[in-house]
Each structure stands twice: as C-alpha cells, then as structure tokens.
Amino acid sequence: MRGKCPECGDRIIKDPETGELYCEKCGLIIDEISIDPGREWRVFNPEDWKERLRVGPPNNWRLPNKGLGTSLVPKELKGERIGREVSPFLKKDKGLRLALLEIDRIASELKLPTEIKEEACALYQKARARGLLKGRKTEVIASALLYIVCREFGIPRTFKEIGKVAKVKNQEIYPTYRSLLSHQSELRIKTSILSPEQYIPRFCSVLGLNKEIEMNALAIAREVSKELIGKRNPIGIAGAAIHLAASIKGVRIKLKEIVKVTGVTEPTIRRMDKEIAGILKPLLFKN
To answer: Which residue of 90, 187, 200, 211 lies most exposed, with the fewest beta carbons within 10 A?
Structure first.
C-alpha cells in the first residue's frame, strides 16, 4: 500500500520494471521517476560480496586507488601550480601507476574493449598484492595479463600481436604467462581454450585472402579440431588450415607470410600441414 490516488481514492502501486507509481484502478501516474537505492552489481559468492561492498562511485581498477581516493586541491602548495589536482597515490606508488598505464596503452593500441583493460588491471593488482610479479618487466607483465584476459573473454589474440605493441618478444611473455597460470585458483583465472575458427577470419583478412579461402579454411579447421584440439596449438592449426585452403584453390602463399601473422614457426606449420592432410586424406578419397 503506497497511499491513495488523488483522483479516485483507490490504492497506488509501483511498477517493478519501470519504477512508476500509478493508481491500480484509474491508471493515473503519480510519479514517473523513482530512484533505485539498491546496488548496481550482482554477486554470486561471499568473496565477490566482500570485494564489491562499498559506498561511493564504482571501483575503477585502472587507477592505483581504484578511483576511490580523494584528490587534494590546496590553495598553496610548494613546487606545484595552484589549482592542480594532486593524488596522494601518484608519488607513493609510481610503479603501480606506470604498470596500469602500460596495460591501458597496449590494450588501446590493440583496440580491446574497456572490460578487458579493467579486468587486466584488476588481475595485475591481485597478482602484485600476492608478490607474484617481482623481478619482471612491466611490459612483459602487462602483455601476459592481457593475453590471459583475452582468453578469458574469448577474444583471439596472439603473443606476437601483443608483444609487437608492447615491444617485447614471445619468449619473454610466455614464462610470465605460465607463472601466472600456476596460480590460477589463487587469482581466480578462468581461461578458455580458443578454437582455430576464432583466429582464421582475422588471419585471412590480414593476409588479404578472399572469402572462399576463408570458408574452406574454416571447414578444414572444423573437420580436424575434434582430433587436434587440446593436443596442438589452435593458432598453429589455424595457420596450417589457411595454408592448405589456399593451396587447394591454387593460391600461392609463402609460409613466411603466415608465420609473420600467426607468430607460429615454419616447422610447426609444416608439421601441422602433414597432420591435417593425414586426417583429411581418408575423407577426400573415401569414394
């Protein structure tokens, strides 16, 4: 019961979806805007509740203080321009600030969504708090974290693509990636296995191959995935599938070009070519 309608005297009720207050009998809208005092986030376990319970604006993991600190604007501050905002966290933790900026920079150049940046920054701060990042380069850490989060979100990105933007080599990223995965349960990392089909459209686009070759490569990848997924690198399967699809259509493409796009070595592509051909041969000649 929310009082009586000023027109007919009947009871006033609230629409649970729109928040409107209206008369049940005559339909008169009493109030169109209703403020929802509830939280804007959901929780699925007690740990999430503890992490997200707060007051004020939403957490922003891309800032050293999660966006919850107070900026000081003193009237007079020696060595600083009057009116300039000064965060107490900037000088206190320069390393953390630089790492978060590097994650943001790499993700922006790769055109990754804000959710990826936010999650990578959150993962960085969790790993750092547990002392898992000591002695590692900032660029390498940022690259490994972004690769992990891309896998969590099902976004196909390779070590080579991320490393190129971060200006680090694949060989530098991989050990840090494996080290972080060894603490998977502690950091609550949930990486999914990406399929070769998720990589093929982007690889074909970069290589300038037509839609027909792309579709053939996808068909090849789907046919062999059951036997190879979990045993072979999906990026290698994607590269070999593209190479075979192009060869079938009489389009010559150098392995060096595929290596450049995928980051997989030539011997790996050649080995995958043979494995895929071995799987497909009985299907091609069964009639």
So the answer is: 211
State both tokens at 102. Answer: 């590097």
Tell me how far apart the alpha carbons of residues 68 and 53 are, in angstroms, rounded to a whole number.
13
In a shared domain, residues 166 and 216: no
What DSSP assignment string belongs to 43-74? -SSHHHHHHH--SSSPP-TTSTTTT-S--B--
pLDDT tens per residue across span 133-191: 888 999 999 999 999 999 888 888 888 889 999 999 888 999 999 999 899 888 888 87
How far is Cα 278 from Cα 283, in angstroms, rounded to an integer? 10
Give yes or no for a contact between 244 and 214, defined as CB atoms under 8 angstroms apart.
no
| Contact between residue 143 and residue 179 where contact means Cβ atoms under 8 Å apart | no
pLDDT digits (tens, 9 = 90+) for 33-49: 555 555 555 655 555 55
Burial degree of 6 (CB within 10 A; 0-12, 13-18, 19+): exposed
Q: What's the rounded Cα separation, in Å, for the pair 147 and 149?
A: 6
Number of domains in the chain: 2
Q: Tell me the pLDDT band of 1, cut-offs 50, 70 and 90.
A: very low
Other CB atoms within a 10 A radius of the CB of residue 108 amount to 12
Residue 191 CA neighbour count, 13 Å, CB half: 23
Say if CB 276 and CB 243 are below 8 A apart.
no
Q: Are 107 and 117 in contact (CB under 8 A)?
A: yes
Residue where a domain terminates, one of 164, 187, 210: 187
The last residue of one of the domains, among 187, 211, 237, is 187
